[in-house]
Amino acid sequence: MNRRLARIAAAAALALPAWAVQALPANYSPVTDARLAQPEPGNWLQYRGGYASWGYSPLAQINTANVGHLQLAWAFSTGQTDGHESPPIVNNGYMYVTTPGAQVIALDAATGAELWRYKKDLPAELMQLHPTNRGVALYGDKVYVATVDCHLVALDAKTGKVVWSKPVSDWKAIHYITLAPLAAKGKIMVGSSGGETGVRGFVAAFDAETGVEAWRTYTVPEPGQPGGDTWPGQTYKNGGGSIWITGSYDPATNLAYWGTGNPAPWPTEGRKGDNLYTSSTIVLDVDTGAIKGHHQYTPNDAWDWDEVSAPVLIDTDIEGRRMKAAVHAGRDGYLWMLERDGTQLKFVDAISYVNNNIFTSLDKKTGRPTYDEARRPGLGKGAVSFCPSLWGGKDWPPEAWNPKTGLFYIPANNNLCAEMPEPDPVKYKKGDLYIGYSIEAVLGSLRYQGGKQPKTVGELQAWNLKTGKLAWVQKFPVPMWAPLLTTGGDLVFTGGTSDRKFRAFDARNGKVLWETAAPSGVEGVPTSFEVDGTQYIAVQSGWGVDAARMSAGIDTLNGKATVVPQGGTVLVYKLAK
Asked: Are residues 192 and 234 in contact, defined by beta-carbon separation less than 8 angstroms?
């Protein structure tokens, strides 16, 4: 009888579906609102570690004194190429990563053993302008992933089995999603990418259990809505305002803060006005989706300055006054300091952290910029060199805040400008680009400031918000496409350079304390977690998408080719024993 039961059990094991679990770490702990609001130091439960988007781990076992002894604990090849940009999310020993190719992979966080893998079937004719994914959300006993064919999928966290899958918008119109969802108050929130194809951006919320849509808020208002008069005629229907990056959230006020993309198309002649709420931060009520406040960084944007990174929510002193702040290192090259006053965002100050030759002044009360119109590209004319470039002083890679050091860290690119030719007349057509320029013109637009190759381009900057002064800077000869992690051990971790290095810096003075070469360039979001009393640092390598495109633009300027090996790898480090 025992042998017969053994044969039945063996046959059942062979019949398990592809998502079946292979091994299990400790029991999975359901992720609650309370845990997301106050995450345990040993876990990394969401995109930036916490709702406030600090990118900070309080773990300090790895610190400035011993970080030089970091060694590889394990590595895992994802089997995919192109840009691996998602953070390793960890809950109670379970790690979740996403990759290009619409994959979610669950791993044992201590050993790297694969537990399960989910891969969504994508339409064969799907145009992938940004073939990447920036991570999952955890809520309850589920893992949520949004996909490049504009679906939201709920998976069982322990097995990877699909619980439900819902279409969010029309992938044939090149609506797609790259961000990690935001989970709060029983809702899973996502936003649409695709402003370069004339979509109308939005944030939408879905019931975490059923997938039923709760609300949808467009970032471009229609006539009759607040801000609708900033769009002439019917231009709002294809106005852009994409949502590329996960929002920040304040549980005390139930308000979420989302960064929005640039307006479409790029030439401004047909869309005169401020074009709300593009190139902005918007404040949404999570219960209803209502827009409660906003700050627009670049009204009537003509320079592709998506301000998509959500502001970092900090209670700190700025200009001698304690305030609830929303701090954002803009693509426009300014470090914006805003006050969260009830539902409103009030301008406090803005400091140029890289050269900007377009803003001639900022209004002292509102922060509204005045432009040098000679540097605005448009119909009938190109634009002389404008700085920063289309990729901005900082693109989507997130900043970080360390409450121990009191410093705000920015992955910046300086000395880079752009020149654009006269745009082509553009008319919206579903499924086509809606920019006004060819891809070749965009990718070939980079110029060096002053026309001469500088000694450095990439900069890791640390700012003292209390004084508004630069505390320190580390400079690199190549651009940085560098999401940041800072820790209680007074460290900053990042990659982002084409030399494939992953580095640890002293968070107080910027000194490089440790570096290692990765299999490919590192543009993933680093995280830190703890299992059985051991602290780990985790990141994905895998070079591609805009990091590779900017690198190619630099190669064109320099007249040489930079070769970065391809292939995604999850890399996890710990201290040598």
From this structure: no
Give which of 521, 506, 490, 409 is closest to 55, Cα–Cα.
409
User: Is position 207 annotated as part of the catalytic site?
Assistant: no
- Residues 88, 92, 94: CA angle, nearest 5 degrees: 45
Q: What is the pLDDT of residues 345-398, one digit of tens each?
A: 999 999 999 999 999 999 999 999 999 999 999 888 877 899 999 999 999 999
Range of the domain at 403: 18-73+94-119+136-575
Q: Are strands 485-487 and 56-57 parallel, antiparallel or unpaired?
A: parallel
Tokens of 9: 């059990």
Q: Exactly one of 149, 304, 332, 395 is catalytic; which is it?
A: 304
CATH number of 242's domain? 2.140.10.10
Tell me 120's DSSP state. P
To the nearest 5 percent, what fractions of the chain are helix, strand and coil? 10, 40, 50
Write down the residue that tokens 């040993």 correspond to: 42
User: Please, which pLDDT band fits residue 4 given cuts at 50, 70 and 90?
Assistant: very low
Alpha carbon 432 to chain centroid, angstroms: 25
Count of structural domains, the chain: 1
Report yes or no on 87 lying in a domain.
no
- Is 390 contained in some domain? yes
Q: Which amino acid is at 26?
A: A
Residue 11 lies in a domain: no
Judge whether 215 lies within some domain.
Answer: yes
pTM of the model: 0.95
Distance between CA 374 and CA 378 in Å, rounded? 10
Tokens 């803003």, located at residue: 359
